[in-house]
Amino acid sequence: MSEPDLAALVELAERVARQAGELVRTRPDTVDVASTKSSPTDIVTAMDTASEALLRKAIHHERPDDGILGEEGGQAKGVSGLTWVVDPIDGTVNYLYGIPAYAISVAVVTGDPLDPSGHQVLAGCVHNPLSGETWTATSGGGAFLDGRPIRVNRNVPLDRALVATGFGYDAGRRRHAAEVVAKVLPRVRDIRRIGSAALDLSALACGRLDAYYERGLGAWDLAAGGLIAREAGALVGGLAGRPPGPELVVAAGPGLYEDLQELLGPLRPDRDGEATEVSEVSEDGAHD
Ligand code: LIP
Questions:
Q1: Domain end: 149, 169, 194, which one?
Q2: Is the CB of 170 under 6 A from ligand 1?
Q3: 287 in a domain, yes or no?
Q4: Which of 15, 234, 243, 272 could form a disulfide linkage to 116, CB 3.0–4.6 angstroms apart?
């Protein structure tokens, strides 16, 4: 796709993300849970649904032949070969509690958006409706925060790395994730659990974090933020050379990425806790 086409796609992504952000900013003093999904804590609010409806209507108004995959409304296939992948509020629990850390995430991909190795992200936008900060990127075109070029931190040693992660909603997965983070925490500067993958990946892209890993992300959590981080110079992958996806996402600048992969490998954060014993990885990384 030519650069002008990519420019038109990222302009639309940013425009509709900002439109949804104006709606999400009108957060009432009391927010109720409208429904739940994978667990009682995996919640949907009326604003999630309203924001996604706005995104779907605005995108299809301009690009009616494209498909749309949204966290709340599922997939509507198109005929153009492009699919818009949207998270109407990434950080829904933060939105529910009024914690100012949530974002609208909009990306457009070719291929199967649900196949981690079967699609390419062409353009993406992550918009923080409270701060107004807006991250954008196009494939091969670099990453930007409010129009200014951004880069990941480089040459960060593992023991000086500020690492973000998340834990998902399933109790068994959270138990294993806790075992993994207990092994990671002594080996790095510190951990941050912000509660929005899109904001985690965007923070990585502009140097506010050094690394990120998490198991259990939906395509909508990852699509825009993953492109923004990659275009800012991060390596973004799964474990052991696999593509990033629901199994696991690991993202960091070169050097730290490999060090984090080496630390995480024996801990198997790409699996749930039912079968995998978290191996004893001593301070020097050797297996006990
Ligand atoms: C959230 C992710 C976050 C994860 C949360 C939740 P949602 O997405 O962005 O990284 O740790 O558990 O999945 O559900 O707010 O769109």
A1: 149
A2: no
A3: no
A4: 243
